[in-house]
């Protein structure tokens, strides 16, 4: 299940991609399949080991084209172990709402992104997220949980303040919003409640089968109740300095004519 729309966020074979806070690796796997040179980074060591195993399985199965590479590594999003301008593309999906220093996170992303590079940021959407917070304290008052809810203008303002230029936005996963409302209503750890189990079964069926009816329904509902807000931006090239105009050479006074005597 991808949150980033790669028709709006083009990826070329050979692009250097950082999936920052990769989690289970869904976007990293898609970038690898598209021929990118991928680094998937997360602070959760168990998830990174799982992502590394999937990368190995994909290589073995020939799922990635020649030239594509994939590395999974544990790391701190606020202190990235990469030189400046190391990546053509950075993806940070459903991460910023967890990080107290979100400005520091954006600064690190901008640092490692080359001028002209592209970035995709996704966060929970304000409206559906507010419903979850209202229904359940346990949804967000947990270690590593969501510490803020972004309004779209607020996130775009953060992105601009970091020196990036947004070029597009959309919403995603409308069919998933009711699932989380049910989870919050019946208990975030209560997966056995009948409404939760039934809706989860529907979502799994939809992800596996991709029927036209639910695809169309989600596209229609995304602007209304899409669970995620997605923003795309570029890192501008530095303006070429205007060459200094050399100072004019001092004028030499014309020789005076000799006095007539």
Automatic annotation (TrEMBL):
Domain Methyltransferase type: 18-120
Biased composition (Low complexity): 251-261
InterPro entries assigned: Erg6_SMT_methyltransf, Methyltransf_11, SAM-dependent_MTases_sf
Alphabetized Pfam families for the sequence: Methyltransf_11 (PF08241)
Keyword vocabulary terms for this entry: Methyltransferase, Transferase
Ranges where the record places region Disordered: 239-261
SUPFAM superfamilies xrefs: S-adenosyl-L-methionine-dependent methyltransferases
GO molecular function ontology, one term from the record: methyltransferase activity
Gene Ontology biological process: methylation
Protein name: Class I SAM-dependent methyltransferase
């Amino acid at each position: 299940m991808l949150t980033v729309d790669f028709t709006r966020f083009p990826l070329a074979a050979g692009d250097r991609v950082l999936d920052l806070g990769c989690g289970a690796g869904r976007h990293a796997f898609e970038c690898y399949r598209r021929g990118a040179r991928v680094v998937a980074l997360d602070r959760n060591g168990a998830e990174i080991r799982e992502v590394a195993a999937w990368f190995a399985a994909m290589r073995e199965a020939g799922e990635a084209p020649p030239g594509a590479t994939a590395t999974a590594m544990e790391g701190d999003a606020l202190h990235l172990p990469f030189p400046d301008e190391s990546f053509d593309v950075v993806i940070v999906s459903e991460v910023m709402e967890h990080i107290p220093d979100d400005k520091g996170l954006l600064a690190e992303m901008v640092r490692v992104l080359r001028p002209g590079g592209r970035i995709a940021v996704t966060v929970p959407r304000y409206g559906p997220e507010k419903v979850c917070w209202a229904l359940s304290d346990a949804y967000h008052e947990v270690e590593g949980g969501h510490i803020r809810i972004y309004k779209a203008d607020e996130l775009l303002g953060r992105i601009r303040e970091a020196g990036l230029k947004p070029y597009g936005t959309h919403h995603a996963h409308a069919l998933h919003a009711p699932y989380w409302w049910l989870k919050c209503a019946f208990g975030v750890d209560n997966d056995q409640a009948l409404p939760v189990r039934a809706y989860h079964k529907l979502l799994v069926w939809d992800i596996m089968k991709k029927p036209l009816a639910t695809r169309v329904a989600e596209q229609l509902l995304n602007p209304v109740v899409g669970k995620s807000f997605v923003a795309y931006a570029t890192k501008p090239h530095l303006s070429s300095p205007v060459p200094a105009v050399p100072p004019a050479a001092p004028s030499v006074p014309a020789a005076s004519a000799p006095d007539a005597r």
